Each structure stands twice: as structure tokens, then as C-alpha cells.
Design the sequence.
């Protein structure tokens, strides 16, 4: 359980990571050494570091058995057209992508942005720029890609701070370091256990909303909607957020190009057919957008998540055999 220092999370200002003396306890020294090692690696040129990360990511993906099994299950349900061999190859690419994306985030955290910005390519950004110039509130619909934190940090670095919701990490030092990195250039993080009202307040204040549409929160408030070749429990809250925040919803997805050593960030046109739709249609449209963003580059998606944990009554539970 994370212990929060008094006053570290004002109601509207979001969670503020605060260093605590307990973080220097010997049981956390391994984490600090690892952070120092990662910080040192960020000073290697991309052309040198890239091949090393590719090899390490490939090997690591073979040994993280639980995550690999979940990815196999998700892919067998979502992309059944792939052979078993193709799914294994995709998981290998996903493991490499995860490590490459994580290192790019580390470089953005530990070094000057000028060392990273030349490796960023935006696609569709004029759509966002025009909406902001017109004074519109915007919520970005961002599936769980491995580079999910990078667009938010890059937008904040440009003076366009983002407000998002997050789960605390179990380890308090990792929680502190991860969220300090996310907030390096500004923005707000609202803990999910505090509800959604503070997120709404931030969007109304002019922050870009950062909403993750593919988390499974159970059947009670969700709709079962098509998701790739299967279905998933989908929370259709984005329709209500649009109305309450008077916001436009833009789908966004980051793609790390391992060959070019760069990050491509894709923004799609706004979802304009949700304002008067029912929950079932909203859930379907959200999942359609996730598929449109992910399918061209499936290795960029976090297939290791328990995306399909909530099933219709009587259906097989996919992860029970893991």
C-alpha cells in the first residue's frame, strides 16, 4: 500500500510525487542502482543503444513467462488469423518495442529534450492544433501502447499540459520515480481511487484530457462490445465526458519505429458521432478506434494486459488456465 505524505495531493492540482526518507532504505538500493544504470545508458547514441536493446528485449520477452502467456491468449482471441508462429514472432517484436519505448522515455526524463525531439514525428497534429486555437477542450483517446506516456510528456514540453488518471505502483520508490518522470514538463495526474471529478475539473480548466479506453472495469458499468475478432467489457464513459467537459475526442497512438530509431505519433480525426449515442454504440466506436490505431502496428500494443478478463455469463474465462 502506498503511503502518501500529508498534503501531497491537493484536490484539483493532482498527485504530486514527494521524496520520502524511507526511499533511502537499503531494500530500495537495487532500484536506485538500476535507475543510475539506465540514466548512464541514455547518454549512448541511438545507433549504439538500439541494437543492444533489441537483443535484450528479445531475450527478456522469452523469460517473462506470465506476460507472454497472457499475450498468447489475447492474440488467439483477437487475431485468430495469425498462425501460432506468427503470434510468437509478434510477441517477440512487442517485447523489443516495450524496451525501446521505455528507454526513449528515460532519455526524455534524464536528458535535455533537444536530444530526443529530432526523433519524434507527429502525424495529424494540425487537427489538434486547430481545435486548441479555436479554444476547444480536447480529450485524447489513447490505447495502451508501450510508448503511452511519451505523447503526454511531449505535449507538456510544448506548453500544452495534459491531465490523466493513473494507478499507483505497488513499490513506493518506483511509484515516485515513474510519476516524477511523467510530470517532468508539467501536467496533472489524478489517482483513480479519487474518482473522475478532478479529471473533469482539469479538462474544464484547459488541460488536455488523456483517457485510456481499453481497461476492463468489470461488467457492472460496462458494455460488451466487439473488439478485434472477439469482444470485451468496455466502459462507455467517454460519451459522458464529452458532454460534461464540452470536449472534442481525438484518438491518438504512439508507434516506436525500431529501424529508424524514432517515435511516430498518430492523431486521427475527432469522434463526432458520440454526443447523442447510447452506451452500446459508444463502446463499439471506442473499440473500433482502438482497432484502427493498433492493427497497422500490433507489436506496439500491450497485449500482456488482462484485456478480456470479464466475459459474458457462461463463456470460458481466458486466463484461468494460466
Sequence:
Amino acid at each position: 500500500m502506498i503511503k502518501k505524505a500529508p498534503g501531497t495531493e491537493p484536490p484539483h492540482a493532482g498527485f504530486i510525487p514527494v521524496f520520502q526518507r524511507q526511499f533511502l532504505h537499503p531494500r530500495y538500493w537495487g532500484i536506485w542502482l538500476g535507475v543510475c544504470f539506465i540514466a548512464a545508458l541514455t547518454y549512448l547514441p541511438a545507433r549504439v543503444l538500439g541494437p543492444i536493446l533489441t537483443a535484450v528485449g528479445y531475450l527478456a520477452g522469452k523469460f517473462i513467462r506470465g506476460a507472454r502467456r497472457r499475450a498468447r491468449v489475447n492474440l488467439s482471441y483477437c487475431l485468430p488469423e495469425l498462425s501460432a508462429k506468427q503470434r510468437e514472432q509478434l510477441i517477440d517484436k512487442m517485447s523489443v518495442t516495450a524496451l525501446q519505448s521505455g528507454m526513449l522515455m528515460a532519455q526524455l526524463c534524464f536528458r535535455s529534450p533537444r536530444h530526443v525531439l529530432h526523433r519524434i514525428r507527429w502525424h495529424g497534429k494540425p487537427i489538434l492544433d486547430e481545435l486548441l486555437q479555436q479554444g476547444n477542450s480536447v480529450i485524447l483517446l489513447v490505447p495502451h501502447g508501450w510508448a503511452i506516456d511519451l505523447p503526454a510528456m511531449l505535449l507538456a514540453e510544448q506548453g500544452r499540459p495534459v491531465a490523466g488518471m493513473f494507478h499507483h505502483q505497488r513499490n513506493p520508490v518506483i511509484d515516485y520515480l515513474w510519476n516524477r518522470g511523467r510530470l517532468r514538463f508539467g501536467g496533472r495526474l489524478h489517482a483513480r481511487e479519487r474518482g473522475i471529478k478532478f479529471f473533469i475539473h482539469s479538462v474544464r480548466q484547459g488541460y488536455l484530457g488523456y483517457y485510456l479506453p481499453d481497461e476492463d472495469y468489470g461488467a457492472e458499468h460496462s458494455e460488451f462490445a466487439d473488439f478485434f475478432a472477439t469482444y470485451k467489457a468496455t466502459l462507455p464513459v467517454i460519451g459522458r465526458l464529452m458532454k460534461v467537459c464540452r470536449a472534442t475526442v481525438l484518438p491518438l497512438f504512439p508507434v516506436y519505429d525500431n529501424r529508424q530509431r524514432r517515435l511516430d505519433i498518430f492523431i486521427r480525426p475527432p469522434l463526432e458521432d458520440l454526443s447523442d449515442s447510447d452506451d452500446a454504440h459508444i463502446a463499439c466506436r471506442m473499440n473500433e478506434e482502438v482497432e484502427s490505431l493498433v492493427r497497422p502496428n500490433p507489436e506496439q500494443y500491450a497485449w500482456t494486459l488482462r484485456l478480456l478478463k470479464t466475459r459474458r455469463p457462461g463463456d470460458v474465462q481466458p486466463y484461468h488456465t494460466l
